[in-house]
Every structure is written in C-alpha cells, then in structure tokens.
Design goal:
1 helix; about 25% helix; NfeD-like C-terminal domain-containing protein
C-alpha cells in the first residue's frame, strides 16, 4: 500500500514539473499582445524610414520597413518585411511573437 502512495506522489510531482516546464517554454517563446502604434516605410531619402502618422525618421536597419508596437510597459520598434505585414492597421491589437530581437509572427485575435 505504501508503494502505491509513493508512486502517486512521484506522479504528482512529475505532473507539476511538466506544467511548469510547459508554462516557462510558452513564455520563453516571446508572445505578447501589443498595439500597432506606427508604421515606418522608406521615403525618398536612402537609408531612412519615415512614419506614416508621425513623420518621424528612422535609420534603416537592413529591412525595408519597421513597425512600432506599444503595450502597457513600453514601446518597441521591430524591422520587418514590407510585403508580408502590410495588411495590419495602426491601432490594431495583435499578438506578436518575437525571437532574438526580430519578429517571427504577427497575428490578430
């Protein structure tokens, strides 16, 4: 009888470890709900991106475009591919997956 109780305790501990591991890996992936604050596109000046609403200028970082995201904590600007993410609007709430400082995926609700 004591063996059965020990097995249940070990099983419970392993399940808790599995759930914690799943939670940590899911958060580690870098998924965040954010709002698109500004979109930056290339202008006439080479090497500089201009904001659509604000008109602010950014130095180009190798990509053609960039998007500024804002959440409750801070605002972040990520370079991205213009052709892939043109259908997202300013003010739209999106889920952003970030890995190593670059956007992996953007999706709506």
């Amino acid at each position: 009888m004591k063996r059965v109780q020990v097995k249940f305790v070990v099983l419970g501990i392993l399940l808790v470890c599995l759930l914690l591991l799943f939670k940590v890996l899911n958060d580690f992936e870098g998924k965040k709900w954010m709002i698109i604050e500004e979109k930056y596109y290339p202008g006439n000046t080479p090497g500089i991106l201009f904001g659509i609403n604000s008109g602010n200028a950014l130095k180009r970082t190798g990509q053609k475009c960039a998007i500024e995201f804002k959440n409750a904590d801070r605002s972040e600007i990520y370079p991205l591919d213009c052709d892939r993410y043109t259908d997202f609007r300013i003010g739209e709430k999106v889920k952003v997956t970030v890995s190593k400082g670059s956007i992996v995926k953007i999706r709506r609700k």
